[in-house]
Amino acid sequence: MILTEDQLQDLLDKALAALPYGTEWAVALEGSLAEGFGNPSSDIDFLFLGRCEDDLPTMPSLLFVDGRRVEIRTRSVRQIADQFRAVEEGAERPGRLSEDLLNRCQRLLHSHPLRGHALVEEVKAMLPAERFGRITADWWAHRARQSLRQAIALVCLDESDEAVGWTRAGLLQTVKSWAAARGETYLEPKWLSLQLDRAGHPDVRDRYWQLDTTAPAPGAAFAPGAAAVSGSVPALGGASASDAAAGPGSVPASGAAPAPSPTPVPDTAAPEPGTVTAPSASPPPGAAPAPRSVPASRGVPAVAAAPAPGGVPAAGAAAEPDAVPAPVPAPASNAVAPAPAAVPAPVAAPASSAPASDAVLAPGAVTDPSGTPAPDAVRDHLTACLGFAADLGIAGVPWRPERLIVERVAGVTTWQTGERVHVIRCRRDVFVLGDDAGAVWRSLVLGRPLPRVLAQAKDTGVADPGPLLAAFLRHGLIRLAWKGGGTVIPSLPLSAPPGPLTPPPSTAQPLLSVHGAAVSGPRAIDLMPLPADRFAAAAMALVWSNVVVENAVEDVTGALRRGQWRVAELTARRAVHAALRGLLSAHGVHPLPADPGLVRRLDLLPPAIRPIGARAGDLLGRGVGSAEQGDTLLAALRAFIGQVRGAVGADSFPLSFDSAHTWRATLQLGYDWLRIGAHLDAQLPIEEARDLLAGHGTAPRPALERHQDP
Amino acid sequence: MSDPMTVLVTGAGGFVGAEVTARLTAAGHTVLALLHHNTELVRNNGRKLTPGPGTLTRITGDITRPGLGMTDDDRRLAAIADRIVHCAAVTDFGLPDEHYDRLNVEGTRHVLDLALAVRTPLVHLSTAYVCGERDGTAREDELDVGQRPGSGYEKSKLAAETLARTAAADGLPVTVVRPSIVTGAGRTGRVRDFKTIYPVLRVLTRGLVRTVPGHYDAVLDLVPVDRVADLVTEATLRARVAGCRTLHAVGYELTLRDFSDVLAEYPCFQVPRFVPPSAFSAQALPDGERPYYNRVISLYDTYFRRRVHFDDTRAAAFIGRPAPTGARPYLRRLLDHCLATGYLGPAPRRLPAAAVRPDGSTHR
Ligand SMILES: NC(=O)c1ccc[n+]([C@@H]2O[C@H](COP(=O)([O-])OP(=O)(O)OC[C@H]3O[C@@H](n4cnc5c(N)ncnc54)[C@H](OP(=O)(O)O)[C@@H]3O)[C@@H](O)[C@H]2O)c1
C-alpha cells in the first residue's frame, strides 16, 4: 500500500475530528488504496460499520483532509448482510446482478481494517472471498459472452468499427473474469494491468495485452452516417464496408495476409504501478477506439499461436446461467460451416476455399468487388479473442453466427401507407424508413438465424444491408438472441445501462404527406418528432382536410350556380378552414386549434408559410352579393388552395378528386391511416372517421356518390 | 377408463377426424375408420397415426351412397358400433350448391339412416357458423331462427344439423358439436393442413390483396384442433351425459383489429386495409389483386362482416373448462408456425405450381 498504517490512522483521526461520529464504529479503508493500487492522488474511502438497527444513509460524507479527498460511508451489519444475501441470490442470474451491489461487496471484502478489527473480520466472513470470486468471475463471463456475441453479429453486419469496440470489450471482460476467479475481483478495469501482474500467469497477461494492442484501428468506415442510415451517405458502390473501413493501421482488406512478424510484440503496454495509464474500458459503441501504436499486423502471429485448438476450458468453466432456450430452432437448411470454438489461426483458414454462398455466412471472407474473398482483420482479431476466451474457460461463444437468432421486439409494429414504411416502437416512437431501409425491413422474417436474415436482406437488391440491420438492432426494432443463451444484451461496466438508441428527431418540413412521413433519404430511419398517436391523428386530419376541401369547393360551385350567395359564402369559409387545418396537420400540429384560431396559429409554422395566413384572412372576410362577386370568390379560393398545395407539396395536398381513381386512392390512404390510428387508439379527426373505422358507417356520402365507378 | 367401445368415425382421415381417432384408440377404444380417397391417417403433428392401445380398423366408404357404400362385411361390422362420429364433409368454400347438398346433406342423411337402424348414439360435426350472417350472441340451443346462411357450405351444414335434430326428436341420441374455425394446436400453433383461414392469411400477408371489405370489430373465432378433438371425443365417450345437446367448440375470439395489430408485428407481412363493405368494389381492385380476391378472399367476406359471439356455456360445463384466453398470443403461435414452415413469409422466387391449390390451400 502506498500509505503507511500511521498515515492512515492519522487521516482517520482527522476525519473523525471533523465529523460527529462516536467511537463505537469499526472502520475499514476500502477502494483502490486498500487493494494495493492507487497513487498519491487517489481518494481515501472509509467504511464505518456499526451494529445499529437503523438503516444508515447511503450517501457518503465527503471531506478534504490534508488536501486529500476523503469519503466516509456508514453501514450497519444488517445492511451488509442484506447486500451479501442479495449477491448470493443474484448469482444465478449474473445478467441481472447489479454492478453497484457487486462493487460494494467487493470493496468491503478487500478492505483494510483500521478500527474494530474483530467486527470487520466478522462481517467479511459472511461471504467467503472464494465464493465471491466465483460470483464475480461468472458476472464478467456473462458480460464477455454478450460483448463477443455482439461483436460476432456486428462483423456479420459489416459494422467493423463497432465490432472492434465490442471485441475489445469482450476481451477485457474475459480477462476480468479470469482474474476474478483468481481473487482479483476489483471491479473497475482501471487497475487491470496491476491485477494481471499480480495474478501470476504472465502467459495469459501477455496474450491479453497482445490481443488488446493488436485490435484493428478504426478505418474510414467510421464517419458520421457511415452506418448508412443517413440518406446523404452514398452507397459504397458494391465494395464491402470493410473494404472502405481499411484505414491506416488496419490490415488491408484484400490481398495477401500480412507477413508474420518474427518477433513477438514486447509487453510494453503494462504501465508502471501508480501511473494511471492502464487501458481503459473498451470504448463505447460507436466511438472510435484510439489508434494503436502497434501496427495491426504485428501481433497477429503471436495471437495465432496462442489458442490451442480444442483448448481445455479452465476448471470451473462457467456454464451459462442466464441461458434461455432459444425459441426458434435453426432450420436445417441453414448450412453454415461452424468454425471451431478456438480458431487456431486467424490467417490460416483460406477463405477462398469456402463456397461462394458462404460469403454471407462467413463474414470474415468479405468479398471484394472482384469476387475474391479477402481476409478481414476485424474478424481475425475477433476469432483470436474468441479463442482466448475459450481457453480461459468462457464457454458459449464459438464463431457460430448461425446461433444468433433475429427476434421480434414486443411492441414494435410495421405500418405502410402507400409505399412508405413506418415502424412504431412501443406504441410511442414512429420511425419512417427510406425506400432501401424499408425494403430491407420488409425482408425480415424474425425467428431466423442472422446469416439467413442477412441473405434475405441481400436478396432485396439493396446494397450493404448489414449496416441497416445493425441500425434496426441499435434502435431496438429487432433484437438478437443467442440460441440457448437468451437475448444478447451487451454492456460495458461503469456506463449507461444498455437500451435502444433514439436518434435526434427528424427536422423535415412539412413532416407529413397523405402518403406518409417525410424521409431524408433512401437509407433513412428517421424518428418523427411527435409521439405515435399524435402522428397518426395529424395524418388522419390531413387526409380528412383534403376530403373536406374538395367537398366544399364543389358545394361553393353548386351554390353559386343556384344564386345561393350566403350558402356559397359559408362553404367557401369551410374550404379555407379545411385547407388551413391540412396545412397545420402537414406540419405535425395536433390537436388542431379551433376554426377562429386557425389563421393566427400559422405563426407556429415556418415563416415562408405565413403569407398564406393573410390570404386566408382576406377570403374569410369576403361576402358574396352577386354572380360576379361569387365568381371572384371561387377564383380566389382556387388560387388559395393552389397556394397551400404549393407550400406543402402536392404530396401533402394532392389534387385527388379529379377522377374516381384518384379519389379512391385518397380514400385508401385514409383507411391506411385509420388502421394505424386504430392500433394506437389515436384521436380520429371526426365522428365520420370513427364510423368508417368501426365499419358502422359509410364513406362521406356526397363524395362517394359523385365518384362512384361506372 | 370407460368400458372399451367400438366407434365408427366418418371422415377419419380428415383434419378433425384423425385427431378424434387418435384420442379414441389411445383411450383403448376400437375405431372403425371410414376412409374415402385418402386412406392414410396422419395426425395434426404430421406424423402417421399409430393406434393403440385400442385397435383401428380401416373401412372404405362413401357417404354419398346409401349404407355409406360399405361392403356387406363392413356394414355388419359397423352395425355393432357403440357410437358413430360423423366428421366427413366437404369443407372447401366456393363449390356449387349441389356439391354441398350431396356431401353434407345427403351424406348426413345416410349416416343418420345407419344410426337409426340400430339406434347408435351419434356425434354429429356441424359448424358454429350455422348461425348465419348475424351479429350478437349465438346460443347453443338455437338452430333455425330464420337466419341467412353466409355461404352454400353453411346452408348445407344448417340443413344437415336440422336432419340430425329431427332424428334426435325421433329418439336417436344425437350430440351436435359445432366448431368455429378450426386452426392449429393450442400450444404450438402447429397445423396439418393449411386450409380455411390459412390461404386467406397467405394472400393478405403477401399483399396479393390489400383492400378487403370488413369491419374492424368483426369477430373470427379460431378454435385449436386439439380442443375440438377433445370435445368430440368426450361427447362420444359420454354420450349419455352429453345427451341430446349441442356444444359450441369455440376458442379464441379475434377481431379484425386484432388481426391487423398482430400482423403488423411481423415486418415481412403486409397488413390489409379493411374498408366498409358498402364502400368496397371488387371491380376497383388493381388487376393484379382481383383474381386473388375472387378466388380466395371473397369466399371469406362474410366472416369479415359478422360481429358474432358464440356462447359456449354448455360446452364449457360439459368439458369442465372454459374457452381459452389469450387470443393474440395464439394468433402469433399460428403465424410463427406458418413462418417456420415457409407457408407464410416472403414469396419464394417461384411457387411449385402443383403443390398449391387454386385457393392457395394445401389439403392432404
Ligand atoms: N375445419 C374447420 O375449420 C371446420 C369448422 C367448422 C366445422 N367443421 C366441420 O368439422 C368436420 C370435420 O372437418 P375437417 O376440417 O376435419 O374436414 P376435412 O379435413 O376436410 O375432412 C373431411 C373428411 O371427409 C372425408 N370425405 C369427403 N367426402 C367423403 C365422402 N364422399 N365419403 C366419405 N368421406 C368423405 C374426407 O376424406 P377424403 O379426403 O379422402 O375425401 C376427409 O377425410 C366437418 O363436418 C366440418 O364441416 C370444420
What do these coordinates show?
The complex is a heterodimer of chains A (710) and B (364). Chain A has helices at 5-18, 77-90, 99-109, 117-124, 129-156, 160-181, 192-199, 202-213, 241-245, 300-305, 377-391, 435-442, 450-459, 465-474, 532-561, 565-586, 611-621, 627-648, 660-680, 687-694, 701-706, and strands at 26-30, 44-50, 61-65, 68-76, 112-115, 366-367, 373-374, 404-408, 412-417, 420-425, 429-433, 448-449, 478-482, 486-487, 512-513, 516-517, 525-527. Chain A has 710 residues and is an alpha+beta fold. Chain A is elongated, with a radius of gyration of 33 Å. Chain B has 364 residues and is of the alpha/beta class. Chain B has 11 helices and 14 strands. A 7-stranded parallel sheet of chain B has the order 3-2-1-4-5-7-11, with helices on both faces. In chain B, helix 1 links the parallel strand 1 and strand 2. The radius of gyration of chain B is 20 Å and the shape is globular. Residues 350-358 of chain B have low confidence and may be disordered. The chains are: A alpha+beta (710), B alpha/beta (364). Residues 10-11, 13-17, 36-38, 61-64, 87-91, 103, 125, 127, 157, 179, 181-182, 196 of chain B line the site of NADP nicotinamide-adenine-dinucleotide phosphate.
Which architecture of the largest domain in chain A does the CATH hierarchy give at level 2?
Up-down Bundle
Shape summary of chain B: globular
CATH superfamily of the largest domain in chain A: Nucleotidyltransferases  domain 2
Oligomer: heterodimer
Note the overall shape of chain A: elongated
Low-confidence parts of chain A, pLDDT < 50 over ≥5 residues? 220-319, 321-375, 693-710
GO molecular function (chain B): alcohol-forming very long-chain fatty acyl-CoA reductase activity
Protein name (chain B): Thioester reductase (TE) domain-containing protein
Domain Thioester reductase (TE) (chain B): 9-231
Pfam family, one (chain B): NAD_binding_4
